[in-house]
Each structure stands twice: as structure tokens, then as C-alpha cells.
Amino acid sequence: MVLKSNQAKFTGLVLGILVLLLSICASIVYGYTDTSWKMAYETFTAYNGSNEHIIIETIRLSRALIAAAVGASLGIAGALMQALTKNPLASPGIFGVNAGAGFFIVAAVSIFSINSLHAFTWVAFLGAAVAAFIVYFIGSFGREGLTPMKLTLAGAAIAAMFSSFTQGLLVIDEMALDQVLFWLAGSIQGRKLEMLTSVLPYLGVAWVASLLLANKINILSMGEDVAKGLGQRTGTVKLLTAITIILLAGGAVAVAGPIGFIGIVIPHLARALVGIDHRWILPFSGILGGVLLLLADISARYIVMPEEVPVGVMTALIGTPFFIYVARKGFHKA
Q1: What is the dihedral of CA 172, 173, 179, 181, to 10 degrees?
Q2: What is the CATH number of the domain that holds 28?
Q3: How does it sit in the membrane (predicted)?
Q4: Can you list the residues of the chain whose pLDDT is less than 70?
Q5: Number of other residues whose CB lies within 10 A of the CB of residue 139
Q6: Is 1 a domain residue?
Q7: How many domains does the chain have?
Q8: Which of 7, 44, 4, 9 is nearest to 24 (CA)?
Q9: Rounded Cα–Cα distance for residues 129 and 145 (Å)
Q10: Which of 202, 246, 275, 323 counts the most CB atoms within 10 A of its CB?
């Protein structure tokens, strides 16, 4: 169902925000420790220091906010990557951006003994940028230049390379494994609110930048020659879009590790709802991405209770069939 009028899209956006807020509330309420909606409300209005109130305030609230921010960032990053590359399979996970950021974090811990959360943020950004540059460079080789298929193959190769490097470092340095294992699993369990606040300024800038770039991306999607004919500096638009993607993907990995498939699934759902206008695709991708990761995280708490499945496993269960469907559907229909 496509929302055709701007009024319908705006109404859908408002409803999406309400669903996102409801999902955040549900993430705060549901889990292994039995709590209720009333108890969650009283935590913020009549805090009494009980075990349930402590869990809600110190663990579940930060977990819910991190899931919403990371999911939104990955959804928007995927939409930007698919628009920039004209590739329906483009996402931070498939193109090796997540793997690059993850490898740089492991290298920082293993080789340089870095433990600062703020340092992890910059290391993740650097890893994401290096991986994105390598994929773009390799995908541009050849007579035909940059093509969706070559980008996908280059991304898969670079993701495998960085993953292999990561495993190699962890085999050499087992102490590093203990420090970064929760990152590599792609999980938001046990994350503290300070981890989100350390990257939130960069994510916030990237969210705003994506909205400001939306109309320019619409023009660029018509073809580079058309965009240049309309006076657009396509090189500048591509560079700014790439920087925005790096901020979004790098920030998300710095907090939650390499969570995959949200960047693939969400942009397609957004386009199914609002069509091809990126002024609507990007905000819908952010909202839907946050909702998906929140719901996946809630589900992960109940699969093997009392233990928890990493949320990256849940997103993979959702995203893998969708990835196969899009791949079979064909690039030309993106």
C-alpha cells in the first residue's frame, strides 16, 4: 500500500512516531524481570529504589533508547547507500562498513590497548570510512565503471576480509576477545546510556544532514547527467552523503556492534509505503528502523529465556529471507 498524498504520508509519519514511542515503552516494560506498565510509570514519577525500579531506570531505559537510535541510524544509512549506489542490496553490513568499523575497534583494543568509549567512537568512524572507500574504489575498476553488481561483490569481499582480520586478531590476543565480544555479537544488552550520549552528537548531525540532502538525492536519482544539467554539484552531494553514511554506520557500530540486515530491509519497506521521494523515505526509514530493532530486541529476550539471543541474530533471521527475495527480484527493479 503506497501512501500517495502528502497528507497521508504525514499522517503515516505521525502514526509511525507513535508506534516507535510505544515500542520504546514496551522495551522498558518487558523482559526476564517481571514488571508492569504501572511499575514503569512509577519509576519515573515515584521512584522508590526497588529492584524493579533500578532495572527499569538503569538498564531497560538505556537499552530502549539505544535500540531506537541504532535502528534509526542503520535504516537511514541503508536508504542513503541504496540511493547513492542504485543498488537494492546496499547496506552497511553487506558493503563491509560494519565489518570495517568492528575490525578497527578490535585492533584498537588488541594492538593499542584503547579502552575509552570516546576513542571507540572515532575508531569506529575511521573503520567505516576506510571500508567504504575500499569498496567504492574496487567497485569502480573496469571498463563499465561503478555498477551495482560490482559494488555488491566488492562489499562482500571486503566484509569477509575484515571479518577474517578480526578473527585473526582475537585468536592471537584472547584478552581482547573478552573486551570486544559483546560488540562482535551485535547486541545492545548491557549497554550504558553513556555509550549513546558519546555518539549522539554525531548521529544527530547525520540525521539532520540526511534530511537536508533528501531533495538533492531525488535529483541525483534521475541520473548524473540530468543532475549536472540542473546545476547540481554531484561530486559534492555524493561526498556529503558518504560522510553522512559513515557517521550513521560508524556511530551505530561503536555502540551496538555490527548489527546486520536492518539497512537492507527497512528502505524497501519505506519505499513500499511512500514511493521514491527521499524526503519521505529517509524519515520513514529512521522510524521503521528503530521500531524493527526494538521489536527484535524484545523478541530476543524470550527465545531462550532466561538467557538472551543477541539482537544481531534476530535481525539476521528477519533479514536473510528478505535479502534472498530482493536478490532474486533483480537489481533493475530497485
Answers
A1: 20
A2: 1.10.3470.10
A3: Multi-pass membrane protein
A4: 1, 117, 144-148, 175-176, 178-179, 182-183, 326-327, 329-334
A5: 23
A6: no
A7: 1
A8: 44
A9: 21
A10: 246
